[in-house]
Each structure stands twice: as C-alpha cells, then as structure tokens.
Amino acid sequence: MMEKTGISKREANKARKRAEIVQVASGMFLEQGYAETTMSAIADTVGGSKATLWAHFASKEELFTAVVDLHVEAFARDVEDVLTGQTFSVPALRRACLRFIDCLLRDNSVMLYRLVVSEGERFPEIKETFYTRGPVKLRCAIADFFATRFDVDEAQQLTQLTMSAVTGYRTDVLLRPDPVGQAQHEAFVDNLLSHSVWPPEKDAA
C-alpha cells in the first residue's frame, strides 16, 4: 500500500504524529485559551520529547494555524456540500444559510470564535490567522454561488449581506439566556429571505 501511494512508512508516521499534536493542541487551545496554552504543556500531553514537537511546528502561532485549519476544513466541507455545483436559487440559499448556522453554533466553532474574540486584541496574529483561513475562504465559496446568477460586484455585496446577517444571528443566539432551536433558525432564515430584494440577474452567456 505504501508503495502504491508513494508514502513511506517514515512519512506516514510523521503525518500521524503531526495530526496527533494538532488534535491535542486543539483541545488545549479551546479549553484553556491561547495565552494559557504553552508549547511545553502540549509536548508533555502528547508525550515524547519536546524536540519532536518543535520539529513539526516552529512556533505556537504556527501550531494554532494548524488548529484553525483543522476546524475550518471540517466547517468548509459542510457548507460547501450545499453550495458546490449549485446555481443560485432562493431554496438553495435557504439550505446554505441553515447549514451555515448549524456549523457556526457547533461547540468547537463557538469555542474557537470566543477564543479569537477574547484574545485577539492581545494576540492580533491569531485574529488574522482565523480571519484569513476561515471567513475569507467561506466568502469565496458563497460569492461563487451568487456569481452563478449575478455579476461579480453584486455577488460580493450579496455575500457580505448574507454573512453579516447569519453571523449576527449567531451572536444574538449566543447572548440569549434560553436555548434556540431549529424552528427558530428556520424562522430567521425565512424572514431574512422574504425581506430580501434580489438585484437583476446577469445576462445569460
């Protein structure tokens, strides 16, 4: 199997170790925060020598970037699943918004968001990492979806409005003292779409 894939046993072991480090670091960053999580503590939890950790990640910022990528990749797969190959329609946008809300309100997404908001001022590098590797990628996927029916400028504007509405709703939900269920998510999205005025569609090619 190794020969067919071109991956040596050594490379496979290295990849497994890296993935293990990222998983451990993810839990520690989300539970303890960026400032309180040290490379030494991560190395102790993973086990083995600290030199092994430093061989995979040259800094805590680099390791945090890998953690963000881990969560963003899973998030992006779920959202893009309802966007890939789709041409704009209101029902398709409704499905995407509901999936987006579901992903935003998952425990790991909420914990990562709170970490970046709470520590982003002290550590601007983590805010930049999160933004460029998370929201920016998602904006591109949503803009491509809108661009199937609208011109580029309109697609960008619709993307901004959609993301602002949905992330604003996420903030509202997190601040509420009582739980918010699926029926309320759907009511919000239906209300949003029913009050939206869509720009003229671009001419067919």
From TrEMBL:
Domain (HTH tetR-type): give its ranges: 15-75
Name the lineage.
Bacteria, Pseudomonadati, Pseudomonadota, Alphaproteobacteria, Sphingomonadales
The cross-references to Gene3D superfamilies, in alphabetical order and at most eight, read:
Tetracycline Repressor, domain 2
Q: Which residues bind DNA?
A: 38-57
Keyword Transcription belongs to the record:
yes
Instruction: Give an example GO molecular function.
Output: DNA-binding transcription factor activity
Keyword flag Cell membrane: no
Name by which UniProt lists this protein: TetR family transcriptional regulator
Question: What InterPro entries does the database record attribute to this sequence?
Answer: Homeodomain-like_sf (IPR009057), HTH-type_TetR-like_transc_reg (IPR050109), HTH_TetR (IPR001647), TetR_C_Proteobacteria (IPR039536)
Q: Which domain of life is it from?
A: Bacteria
Tell me which UniProt keywords the record has, alphabetically: DNA-binding, Transcription, Transcription regulation
